[in-house]
Structures are given as structure tokens and as C-alpha cells.
Amino acid sequence: MIEAPHPGMPPSTGERLYHWLDARFGLAKLVEFVRHKEVPVGGHSMVWYYLGGTTLFFFTVQVASGVLLLMYYQPGEVTSYESIRYITTRVPFGWLIRSIHCWSAHLMILSLVTHMFSTLILKAYRKPRELTWLTGFMLFGIALTFGFSGYLLPWNELAFFATAVGTDSVKGLPGIGQWLLEVMRGGPDVTINTLYRFFALHVVILPLVMVAVVSVHLLFIQVQGMAPGMAHQRADRPGLKFFPDFLLRDLLLWLVCLIVLAVLVYVLPYGPGIPGVEWELGKKANPLAPAYPGIKPEWYFLWIYQLLKEFPAHLWFLEGPQAALLVVTVLMGIWALVPWLDRRAGRNQPSPMFTDLAVAAIIFMAYLMLKAWDVGGHKAGSTGLPDPRATAWTCALITLGLASVVALLRILAYKQRWMYFSGAALLQVVLNGVFGVDYLVAGAIALLLAVAGLAVTLWKGRAERLEAPR
Amino acid sequence: MAAPVAQSLKPERRSFLNWLIGAGLLGWAGSILYPVLRYLRPLGDVGAGGPLKLTAEELSILGKSHFVIARAGTRKVIVFESGGQLRALDAKCTHEGCTVQFVPGDSLIWCACHNGKFDLDGRVLSGPPPRPLGKWVASREGDDVLLTMETA
Fold first, then answer.
1. How many secondary structure helices (H) and strands (E) does chain B include?
2. Which residue of chain B has the CA closest to A90?
């Protein structure tokens, strides 16, 4: 903080420097802006305002640890795997830097996803913040691409097959599929050429794009301020001063994040050992070796991975993976357009439909994720392949249990009643897991329920609006 | 009575807390900087234990062009033949670290970067190099050429 010079005292060096800069760049305006910047208070917990900051913190850790890894990493057929092994076994604290990079990557995605869901549930995307949501959605996509491209760089077995599957899925895109596949891979198959492309993407292109989009995202927030809660919208309520009150809390939380990161890195340097959250280097990639059992993508891709398994070989005129890709694209499209679809929140009216959409999305993904982990699929003592029926049964029961708790909490604590979407998502889980109905058939039945609920609500809302002015 | 005591304690407590926070911050910064600095410091490759042997490829270069630059751990050695005698010197010029070469016609070691000239024992003849080149011992054993660092 810049204080007025003490009367009779000569200005200190800091004050002189400030005035020198102020005369040239007009710092006073900036100081004035920072002094008046406030964070809205009330309506909901303050916790949700910190998650963008923690995501940014983990991104900074990613940049720092990534630059350090670049000092030793050498992309190449005979060097990629070897240089990572050199880093983790020979270089002092090399294991630490790699482990920080891996842990922080997962924590960044976790923080980002939590931030996104809280924004959805609190309707912070509503007018005038539609573009903040859209840039945030882009950052989500960039972060996932970061994870996907970074996965290949160690050139181990896991990297090889994850990339083979991941890139293969784009071939279903109509028209440009095959072209895009070859551009991504640098040839028809995953080879070391793919690694060079992913390396360039991971260490140059994505960081540049990420910094640019983050800057725009932050600029929007500076111009518009953080979104106040829906319920309170009272301008007379004093907010929390951003500087220094909020910033210090932010910094303290970042310190806590760093401590959590350090503890995780120290206790579990290769991850918790759950498929999709582990980074043991393993064997070097061998294009001629068969895919090994239990191979899984990272946890945030598990739901798509499972969805690919649920689709049959052919669905009408589409191939299975094509149809799955279409479903994911449609869902992502809806997700990106939420601020425009949610007309009620735009008018600052309660919008229970979109709260329920978030819950439905969580149920939908949780069930697929549990299934992807084959939870309950292995019978005691058996060493064979997991049994999909037993898996579906166990996963459905777990999802049902969790969803019931959430539903009770919503009804009792938040007095929420609108549950057609989450109900539909749960219906699909129960039909598929408990009654053994085909996943897609169950999905179609659930979709009918959701559409019916939507239609009833829209019709009732319209009737109310027609009556209201009279 | 209580008030003056509290007043006299106050600045001390504050300075103690400031000291504590400062020390904590310093320790925190140190615990981050130390691993990073250790990580950044390159590992010197462990040099070969015994005498270094020239490879067949290096021997053929030596035969053709009267000298060869060989790698000895992290250092580079120039091996050359002059008057039927095999000699070896550090190949890194003591001026700015360029790699020197043997000029058979003038019987000297020359650095092309800044025109430093050394005699065949590594002593500076002319130019900017401040120190002589380190000496190695090159010896023939059968068809092999062995190199050992000369200890002063």
C-alpha cells in the first residue's frame, strides 16, 4: 500500500520509485481500482470464489516444474523413455520434480472441474458473464488436451496405447476424420513422429494458448467483478475488500495447496496407484506388444472411455465409436451453451433446472467412471477378466446410494424440488445396473423422462407468464 | 501496573513474531530453492576408471589427418603424432574454451577462434590464452593407443 509521506520526513526510496512510475504510467488509477475491488459476500459460501485461483496456482506449478523437466527431457525414439528414467533415478530431486508435475496436473484438473461445477450450480455464468463461462469452457478443453498430450511424452506402454486409442477416436469425424488422425499422429500410426507433434503441442502451443485464454478470462472478471450470489443481489451489502483481505486469504490457500502437494508427492511419488491416477514409468513403449490388461486413460477421460465400451459395433447408420463421439460432442455443446440456454438465470430468477443438470451430469459420469474402474467386477479369488454384470450391479448401487444422499440433502437443506434430469440419470443407472437393461436402451428411456419433465416445466412456466401480467 | 508492562511487552512480542514469520518464509524459500538448484546442477559423467583407449574409428582418423579429438569423460583430448612421437593434450583452449587443432606443417597447436598458439607440449607461444594446455600421456600398446592424465 502506498501511504502519504510522513510530514517533515523525506520520501522513502519506495515512495520515490512509486512517484517516478506514477508520473510515467499513471499508477494511481490502478491503485484506485485495486483499492475499490471487492468480492461479493453472502448468498452462498465464499469457498467457491477461491477455486479459480487454486487452478491458476496449480497451472503456475505446472509451468515451473515443466520448464525444469525440459532441462533433461529429450524427445526421441531412444531418448524419451531413457531421459525420464534418468530424471527419476539419477538427477538429484528429479523424482520430486516429475512427481510434482504429475500430481499438480491432476490437482489442476480437479480444481478446474470443481470450479466449473460450482459456477454452474451457483449460476455465475448468467448475464452478463456468458463469455467468462465460454472462455472457462475453452480452458477446460485446453487443460484436457494438456493432460492427453503430456501422457505420451514418457514413451512408455501406457502412453503408447492411451495415445493410440485417443487419437483413433477422431477418425469417426465425418469428412475430416482420417485427415485429422494423420495430422495428429504424423502418419497413419502412432510412432515417434506422433511424440514430436505432441511434444510441440504440450510445451509450446498449449502453454501459449492457455496463457492467452486465461488472460482474457481474468480480464473479463476484472471488468465485471466476481459474480454475486443469486439470492442476494443487494448492492448495499458491503463486499470483502479484494486487497488485502481476499488476496491474503487466496495466498494462504495457495500455501495450503503447496503443502498438500508436497505431502502427496512425498508420500505417493507415483500417484495413489488407482488406474487413471498413476504415473509409474513401467515398460518402454513397444509398438509390437499387445495392450496389457487393466490399461486405462486418466481419470477425467474414464467416462468417455467407458461410454466407448457401452456402444455396440453399429448403431443405425453410424459405427459405435462414431455414435459415442456424437453423444459426447452434443453433451459438450450443451455444456458450452448453458448461459444462453438458461434464460431464467439470465433474468436473475431461480433456475432449478440447471442446478439439476449439474447433478445429473455428476451422476452420469460417476456411474461410468465406477464402471470403468471395474468396481465390484472381480470376484474374490478369481483371476479372470472382470464380470460386467457384477460391475454394473455394484456401481449402480454405489451411485444410487450417493445420489440418494445428495437428493435428500438438496430437498432438506436447500428445499430443491426440480429433479427430472438427475432423476432421469439415476433411472438409467438403475435400469442398466440393477435390472440389466442395455445401457443405451436405459439411456433412451431416461432421456424420454428428462424431455417430458422439461416439457411440463416449460409449459407450466409459459402458462404462469401468460397469467402473470393480468 | 498492568498497563505499562503490557506496553513494554508489546513491541518485543511484535518483533519476535516478525522474526518468526521472516525465519519461516526464509526456510520455506530455502526448501523450494534447494531441490531446484540441486536439480539444475548437472551430474558430471563419471570418467573412465582406468586409462582411456582410442576406438578403431579414432585411430583411423589419427592415421589420416595426424590428429584426433577424443572424449575422455567430460573432457576432450587432442591426440597427435609429430616426428614419430605420439602426444596428447587437453583439447579445450584455455582462453575461451574452443577446441584446438594440430597444424602439422608448423608443428604447433592452434586455436582458430582467437588465434591462440601452443607448442607441442602445450605451452603458450602467442595469442591470448592465459595458461598452457593440460598434458596427457599417450602410449602405444600393440595396436592400441592408451591415454592417461599426466599428474604433475
1. 2, 10
2. B43
Are residue A321 and residue A282 in the same domain, yes or no?
A: no
Is residue A158's pLDDT more than 90?
no
CATH of the domain at A105: 1.20.810.10
pLDDT of residue B11: 77
Shortest CA distance from B38: residue in chain A: A92
| In a shared domain, residues A207 and A321 | no
Are A95 and A238 in the same domain? yes
pLDDT at residue A45 above 80? Answer: no
CA atoms within 13 A on the CB side of B27: 6
Does one domain contain both A124 and A205?
yes
Asked whether residue A101 is domain-assigned, the answer is yes
Residues B50-107 have pLDDT tens digits of 678 888 888 889 888 889 999 887 788 999 988 888 999 999 999 999 999 999 889 9
3-state secondary structure of A397: helix
Q: Quick one: A334 and A254 in the same domain? A: no
Residue written as cell 502506498? A2
Cα separation of B138 and A447, whole Å? 84
CA–CA gap between residue A97 and residue A73 (Å, rounded) = 12
In this prediction, residue A231 carries a pLDDT of 64
Contact A68, B39 (CB under 8 A): yes
Closest CA to A38 of A238, A248, A250: A238
> Whole-model pTM?
0.87
Among B39, B41, B45, B46, most A C-beta atoms within 10 A, so best to mutate, is B39
Domain that holds residue A422: 308-376+386-461
Residue contact B40–A71, C-beta within 8 A:
yes
Which residues in chain A are closer than 8 Å to B40, comparing Cβ atoms?
68, 71
ipTM of the predicted assembly exceeds 0.90: no
* Residue among A113, A2, A183 nearest A369 (CA): A113
Nearest to A96 among B35, B40, B43 (CB): B35
Q: How many CA atoms lie within 13 A of A71 on its CB side?
A: 18
| Residues A317, A243 share a domain | no
Total domains in chain A come to: 2
Query: What pLDDT was estimated at residue B2?
Result: 47
Q: What CA–CA distance (Å, rounded) separates B25 from B31?
A: 10
- Hey, are the CB atoms on B35 and A93 less than 8 Å from each other? yes
In a shared domain, residues A69 and A214: yes
Which of A393, A402, A360 has its CA nearest to residue A374?
A: A393
Are A280 and A153 found together in one domain? yes
